[in-house]
């Protein structure tokens, strides 16, 4: 055992240890006091439980199981239907906006009126014929809706509509004319 300095607080030149102190304590054991513990056999861990730290665990995903029920053609067809629905919605909105902008509201008519109109349009967007299917009950309102179609005359954006979408959705229209 090594000790440097003392714990005398009156001494102002007290040295403080800045390095660890090595202390060696030796005790002699007698054979009578020594107890021998039965030693357990050291077991080695099984190799199957050992995962080396320098290896990576890779998980493989089999995508064929995820896509087994849908083929690529079905996915393409579904995407085509979604985009077709979007186009139909966009062009329908454009038709409604053009008719509403051409409509002049008659004076002294009540609110909440609506009528149904049948419209036939060629592939260039020209209105070929139109007729009243269901009246609103107010002749002035019905005539104003028919005049709005006459004012529109041609939908100029029809040349952008693909032919299959035109044939299935826009060749013959039934429009519920309700400007509110």
What class do helices, strands and sheet pairing give? alpha+beta
Widest sheet: strand order?
A: 2-1-3
CATH architecture group name of the domain at 82-177 = 2-Layer Sandwich
Helical residue percent band: 25-40%
| Number of beta-strand segments | 3
The share of residues in extended strands comes to 5-15%
What low-confidence regions span 5 or more consecutive residues with pLDDT below 50? 1-8
Q: In CATH, what is the class of the domain at 82-177?
A: Alpha Beta
Shape annotation: elongated
The CATH topology of the domain at 82-177 comes to Fusion Protein Consisting Of Minor Coat Protein, Glycine Rich Linker, Tola, And A His Tag, Chain: A, Domain 2
Instruction: Quote the average pLDDT.
Output: 76
Q: CA-to-CA gap between the ends?
A: 102 Å
Summarize the entry for a quick read:
The chain has 4 helices and 3 strands; from the N terminus they run ααββααβ. It has helices at 63-66, 72-102, 139-152, 163-170; strands at residues 115-121, 127-134, 172-177.
Layout of SSEs?
Blueprint: H1 63-66, H2 72-102, E1 115-121, E2 127-134, H3 139-152, H4 163-170, E3 172-177
Antiparallel strand pairs: 1-2, 1-3
Helix pairs in contact: 2-3
Textual characterization of the structure:
The chain is an alpha+beta fold. The chain has a domain at 82-177: Fusion Protein Consisting Of Minor Coat Protein, Glycine Rich Linker, Tola, And A His Tag, Chain: A, Domain 2, CATH 3.30.1150.10. The chain contains four helices and three strands; from the N terminus they run ααββααβ. Strands 2-1-3 form a three-stranded antiparallel β-sheet. The radius of gyration is 46 Å and the shape is elongated. The protein starts with 62 loop residues before the first helix and ends with a strand. 11% of the residues are buried. Mean pLDDT is 76; it is low at 1-8.
């Amino acid at each position: 055992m090594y000790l440097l300095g003392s714990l005398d607080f009156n001494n102002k030149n007290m040295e403080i240890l800045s390095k660890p102190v090595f202390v060696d304590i030796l005790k002699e054991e007698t054979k009578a006091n020594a107890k021998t513990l039965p030693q357990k056999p050291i077991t080695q861990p099984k190799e199957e439980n050992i995962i080396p730290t320098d290896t990576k665990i890779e998980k493989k995903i089999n995508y064929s199981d995820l896509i087994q029920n849908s083929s690529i053609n079905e996915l393409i067809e579904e995407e085509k239907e979604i985009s077709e629905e979007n186009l139909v919605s966009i062009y329908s909105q454009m038709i409604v906006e053009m008719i509403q902008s051409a409509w002049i509201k008659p004076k002294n008519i009540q609110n909440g009126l609506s009528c149904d109109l049948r419209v036939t349009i060629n592939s260039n967007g020209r209105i070929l014929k139109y007729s009243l299917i269901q009246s609103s009950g107010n002749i002035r309102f019905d005539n104003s809706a028919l005049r709005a179609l006459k004012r529109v005359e041609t939908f100029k954006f029809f040349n952008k509509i693909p032919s299959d979408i035109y044939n299935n959705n826009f060749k013959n229209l039934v429009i519920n004319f309700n400007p509110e």
